[in-house]
Structures are given as structure tokens and as C-alpha cells.
Write a structure and sequence with these properties.
There is one protein chain. This protein folds into two domains: 181 residues, Orthogonal Bundle (Preprotein translocase SecY subunit); 258 residues, Orthogonal Bundle (Preprotein translocase SecY subunit), CATH 1.10.3370.10. Helices cover 66% and strands 5% of the residues. Strand 2 and strand 3 form a beta hairpin. It starts with a helix and ends in a 28-residue tail after the last helix.
Length: 460
């Protein structure tokens, strides 16, 4: 405990780091306050807030990313999801469109892409805000909470404008945290929204276990659940940080003038390939796809088809978890293939006079890296699929829906990744100011692992 307190003192003693932490906390508080402000024309007392979110599928994802603001009909109801969608679109455009890929490699081009992403965010937000207004007008208790004299065109146009402005303001908060705070602002805002539900979920689980008449047995079950929960977090950390290191050599170089030239032997390094390069994106894609059966459920003409579609819509069923796991594995390979380019990596190695021992530069190096990546992606995809279905399994064994959502899935993967990234930045400040790091066994590594010969991140 004393060492932990000393670490906190060291962190607080660094003037720049202290200012960044305070700045980040203040902006996060502004965001959380905004999540509690209801849209004009809606009576907040008539909205029954659900602790389990806005349901499954896309609505559940939106509510989770918005920190519960989606359910509250808040001015920040859409959160940063439109900005994330626009960023993903521009990232995929860089893979498909050569002109965008060229812009991504240049500083001026990256600034233009950032500007285009903001413009696209406005369009995406306006479209999603219009859909959200329709959702409010046709869903209880929101429809009953809207003032009768304010439920027409005026409500629609004002809500769209406010939601669009709210998303742009949250995007601005994220950028300011990234520039003047600590950690990645957008990811930090998402994580804070997710973890805001954690204390209430723990309390609900405690009440459920102690009020069921099990007595001490209920507390014992709760302790077992907490032990499993900690084990899941450890497993997610290993999944997030797991890398396959490919040895790398640098060619001998001549340094100095003609008269005083000196030959320097090549250095040895490695290329860290992430076991889970796709990050949390496969789970998000799979959850979105599993929302499709609920659309066609009402059109089923036979009892067998209706029962099958109902099973695919229930995250407790075997069929749902089986299809969900298969889709996570498939999307992991798909997204990894989109963001990982072994040919470009091989070209970068060749330009930097580096090579993999025993492998010819060029095409052979690209094929070797691609083969290694395919091999390590399989266990990463399987573990990611297991992490994705753990919340459903936890619900089946009797854990409350709120607490079960933290047993893996999107919530904890994002939380673990963002916390590791933030701690990595804090540790960098400690080491730069000649303090010991946060760990004895080595430095903390986050989700972003870059090759020493490339500037492109190898993680999502």
C-alpha cells in the first residue's frame, strides 16, 4: 500500500502530468453532466430508466457507448458513435480508394482526412438523430413523455439540431482530452460511459444474492463471481497485450566521412504482431448482424421458422451463441485482412535495410509475415469469440443482466484497452522525469504496438 501511495505522489508531483489529469477529469465531468440533461419537450420524470440498457443489438450498443444517455433521451443520446462510424468509413476508404490511402501517408493529407471525417460526422449524426426522433415518437415511455404541444415538426427539427450539436460537442471534448489531457479522448469518454454503470450493477448483484434467502451461501456465490470476474479481466489483458515477436536484423551501415568512416554492425530488433489486431470491432460487427433476425421475426410464416428466429434473437440460447461466436471469428479475419498489409510492411523493411533472418526481402517476407499473422489470428479470434459470449453465459447461470455485461464482451474489452493505453502514457511521464515505472517486471504496453520500421499501428 505504501508503494502505491508513493506512486500516486510521484504522479502528482509532475506538474504537466497533474495539469493533464485535472483537465481530463473536468472535461469528463462536463460530459457526464450533459448525459443527465434531457432533451427539451420531454418530461424526465415520466421516463423509466432501464438498468439493463435499451435492449440488445444496435440499441444496446448505442446506449452502452453513450453512457446510458440513449435511454435517458439526453442531449448526448448519440454520444460519439456517429464520429466513430465516420472514422471507420474513412479508414476503410483508405484501403479501397488509392487517393485516400495516399493522403493517409502525408501530414497535410491526414489533416484533410480529419476535416472530411468531421463533415461526414455531421451528416451521419443528422441521419441518426432523425431515426432517434422516430424512435422516441413511437416507443413508450418516451412518446408519452413528450409534451403534446411540442410533438410536431418543431420537436423534430429542434431535437435533430440539439442531438447533432451534442455529438459535435462530445467529439470536441474528446479531441481536447487527446491534445491537452491524458489518454485518447474519444476512447476515454466511451470507457467512462461504460464503467458508469458498473457500481449500480455490482449493487444490484449484491442485493440479488443477499435478498434471495440464500444467506451466507449467496455471499459465497457473490465472492466466487467476483473471483471469476477478476480472472476474466486478466484473460482480456492477456488477449489485448498478446504479441508474436518476429526477429528482425538491420544491415551493416557505414557512418562518418570518407577519411573517418566507421562500419557499424546491424542491430537486432523484432516486429510485434498482435494476437488480436482487430480489437473490439469484430464483436461490434457481430452484434449488429445478430440484430437482423429480430427484423424478420415478425414475417415468419411457420412455427419452426419463428422458433428458430426467436432462438437467434435470444442471447441465452445455444443457437444465438453458436452463430455469434462463428461471426466473431469470421469478422476477426475479415477486419484483420482490411487493416493489416504484409506487402506494405515488407516494403518498409526493405527501405530501412532490415530483414527477417532466413527470409528473402520482398515478396517472400510479405508471404512469411502473412502466414504468421494467419496462424496467430486463429487463437486470437477464438478467444475473442469466447469473450463475446461470456456475458450470455453469465446471464444463463443466474448473474443479473447488468453485471453479466461486464463478463467480457464489448464493455470490458474497451475498458481494459483504454485503461492500458492511459496507464502507458502515465508511465511514460514517470520515466521521463526519472521516476520508477508503475510495474517492477517491465513497462506497461497498451493496445497500440507499432513496428520499429513503420508508423502504422498494428492494432485497431
Amino acid at each position: 500500500m505504501k508503494k502505491f501511495i508513493d506512486k500516486l505522489k510521484n504522479i502528482w508531483s509532475i506538474d504537466e502530468l497533474r495539469k493533464r489529469i485535472v483537465y481530463t477529469i473536468l472535461l469528463v465531468l462536463v460530459y457526464r453532466i450533459g448525459c443527465l440533461i434531457t432533451l427539451p419537450g420531454i418530461n424526465p420524470k415520466m421516463i423509466e430508466e432501464s438498468s439493463s440498457g435499451a435492449g440488445g443489438g444496435l440499441l444496446g450498443i448505442l446506449n452502452m457507448f453513450a453512457g446510458g444517455a440513449f435511454n435517458r433521451a439526453s442531449i448526448f443520446a448519440l454520444g460519439v458513435m456517429p464520429y466513430i462510424s465516420a472514422s471507420i468509413f474513412m479508414q476503410l476508404a483508405g484501403i479501397v480508394v488509392p487517393q485516400v490511402a495516399k493522403m493517409q501517408r502525408e501530414d497535410s493529407g491526414r489533416r484533410k482526412i480529419n476535416q472530411y471525417t468531421r463533415y461526414l460526422t455531421v451528416i451521419v449524426t443528422a441521419l441518426q438523430a432523425s431515426a432517434y426522433v422516430t424512435y422516441l415518437l413511437n416507443t413508450q415511455p418516451y412518446a408519452g413523455a413528450i409534451a403534446q404541444n411540442y410533438s410536431g415538426f418543431m420537436f423534430w427539427i429542434s431535437t435533430v439540431i440539439i442531438l447533432t450539436a451534442g455529438t459535435l460537442f462530445v467529439m470536441w471534448l474528446g479531441e481536447k482530452i487527446t491534445d491537452r489531457g491524458i489518454g485518447n479522448g474519444t476512447s476515454l469518454i466511451i470507457m467512462v460511459g461504460i464503467l458508469a454503470r458498473f457500481p449500480n450493477s455490482i449493487w444490484q448483484e449484491f442485493v440479488d444474492k443477499t435478498s434471495s434467502g440464500a444467506g451466507a451461501g449467496g455471499l459465497l456465490i457473490l465472492l466466487i463471481e467476483m473471483a471469476i470476474f477478476i480472472a476474466v479481466i486478466i484473460g482480456l489483458i492477456l488477449l489485448t497485450q498478446g504479441v508474436r515477436k518476429i526477429p528482425l536484423n538491420y544491415a551493416r551501415r557505414i557512418i562518418g566521412s570518407t577519411n573517418a568512416a566507421k562500419e557499424v554492425s546491424g542491430n537486432r530488433d523484432f516486429i510485434p504482431l498482435k494476437v488480436n489486431s482487430a480489437g473490439v470491432m469484430p464483436i461490434i460487427f457481430a452484434q449488429a448482424m445478430m440484430f437482423i433476425p429480430t427484423i424478420f421475426r415478425g414475417y415468419a410464416t411457420s412455427d419452426g421458422a419463428a422458433g428458430f428466429l426467436n432462438a437467434l434473437s435470444d442471447n441465452h440460447s445455444l443457437w444465438y451463441n453458436l452463430f455469434y461466436a462463428v461471426m466473431v471469428i469470421a469478422f476477426t479475419y475479415f477486419y484483420t485482412a482490411l487493416i493489416f498489409n504484409p506487402t506494405e510492411m515488407a516494403d518498409n523493411l526493405k527501405r530501412n535495410n532490415s530483414f527477417i533472418p532466413g527470409v528473402k526481402p520482398g515478396e517472400d517476407t510479405a508471404n512469411y509475415i502473412a502466414t504468421i499473422m494467419d496462424r496467430i489470428t486463429l487463437p486470437g479470434a477464438v478467444f475473442l469469440a469466447v469473450a463475446g459470449i461470456l456475458p450470455g453465459i453469465a446471464s444463463v447461470v443466474g448473474i443479473t443482466s447488468g453485471f453479466s455485461s461486464f463478463f467480457g464482451g464489448t464493455s470490458m474489452l474497451i475498458g481494459v484497452g483504454v485503461i492500458l493505453d492511459t496507464l502507458q502514457q502515465v508511465e511514460s511521464y514517470l520515466l521521463m522525469n526519472h521516476y520508477d515505472g508503475l510495474m517492477k517486471t517491465g513497462r506497461i504496453t497498451g493496445r497500440t504496438v507499432a513496428s520499429p520500421t513503420t508508423t502504422k499501428s498494428l492494432s485497431a
